[in-house]
Amino acid sequence: MASAARASLRFRGPIARLSQVVLGGGLLGYGYYGIYAPWADPRKVPNELDPDYFRPFTLIDRRELTSNTALLRFRFRPTPAIPCIPTVGAVDVKDPNIQVKRPFTPIHTQWVHADLQLPSPNEPSRPASGPTDFELLVKRYPHASVSQVLHHTSVGDTAEIRGPIMHWPYQPNRWGHIAMIAGGTGITPMFQLLETILTNPNDRTRISLIFSNRTERDIPLQAELEKIQARYPERFQLTLTIDRRPSDPYVGLLSRDFLVSRLPPAKQDDAIVLVSGPPGMMKNVCGERTTDWEQGPVTGILRELGYTGVNVHKF
Question: Which residues form the FAD-binding FR-type domain (predicted)?
């Protein structure tokens, strides 16, 4: 019998999982695949999140961002138990054909394109019921089953989703400066944080983001990020880097000299560095997470610069 005190979200930790297979360097953006237990949902309510049961969510829009990346928008029905997806939170999406699941970090881009006026400090930054949709940034991989399922989902179809899963609880004003380093679809936890922080009039946290991609054509959400920088120039600093273009100084793998000139000092007490990206970037910058999804030691460039697990978090 299910416990009456079941929590409305789950924390991702080192608890044993069924036949988990690690495939990537950033849990939220590059994630892992795992086998899920297909037990029956007693309610099966569409478009409502549940931390234990997969439920059908309707795809209401899709936008192709790059040659292999799409932004999929799903209907979301807030409930008293789960009015919104917490920051930084994720959801699991499954491939029903072979019982494989993969985590994705939902984002919400509409706040960027709307002519938002910041509320006064005495007003909430968003409706209490939360947004009525969320988006998943999905990269197409030829041999990744969940990625293929989502890329073949048409508007009006449904995908099986459960959650939310809490990965890094954010506390407003806990840090004076959050420095973000992201690569590819590893941008999603950072984008989720940007909305949470910048739309809260009581949160004074400053944010810097180094966003690395292979080419200019491979940069997802570039227009949204540049618009955020234009709207919040005193609180958000954006640096885009690419691997391939000889004429640009911000080209190539992230180097020690490049990072030291853009990150807060390692001994700055009110600063933290968040990192999310593909395995190669993670290994170069800070080291990958362990196979049981613990943070693991800080290695790579950040270790050389004096950072430790106290002021580095890996997604």
Answer: 52-171
Omega prior to 88 cis, within 30 of 0: yes
**Does 308 carry a binding-site annotation?**
no
Whether 230 contacts 236, CB under 8 Å: no
What is d(CA 227, CA 82) in angstroms, rounded to the nearest whole number? 29
235 annotated to bind ligand: no
- 102 among annotated binding-site residues: yes
Please check if 146 is assigned to a binding site: yes
Q: Is the four-CA dihedral 112, 117, 120, 123 of positive or negative sign?
A: negative
| Each residue's pLDDT expressed in tens, for the chain with a length of 315 residues | 444 334 445 545 433 333 333 333 344 545 445 555 555 666 778 999 999 999 999 999 999 999 899 999 999 999 999 999 999 999 999 998 888 999 999 999 988 876 544 444 444 444 434 568 999 999 998 888 899 999 999 999 999 999 999 999 999 999 999 999 999 999 999 999 999 999 999 999 999 999 999 988 899 999 999 999 999 999 999 999 988 655 554 555 799 999 999 999 999 999 999 999 999 999 999 999 998 889 999 999 999 999 999 999 999
Residue 89 CA to residue 11 CA, distance in Å, equals 9
119 is in an annotated binding site: no
Angle subtended by helix axes 222-231 and 188-198, to nearest 10: 30
Q: Is 137 annotated as a binding residue?
A: yes
Same fold, 55-166 and 177-314: no
Consult the annotation and say whether 93 binds a ligand: no
C-alpha to C-alpha distance for 18 and 183, rounded to whole angstroms: 28
The answer to whether the pTM exceeds 0.85 is no
Which CATH class name applies to 55-166?
mainly beta
- Given a contact cutoff of 8 angstroms between Cβ atoms, the answer to whether 27 and 181 are in contact is no
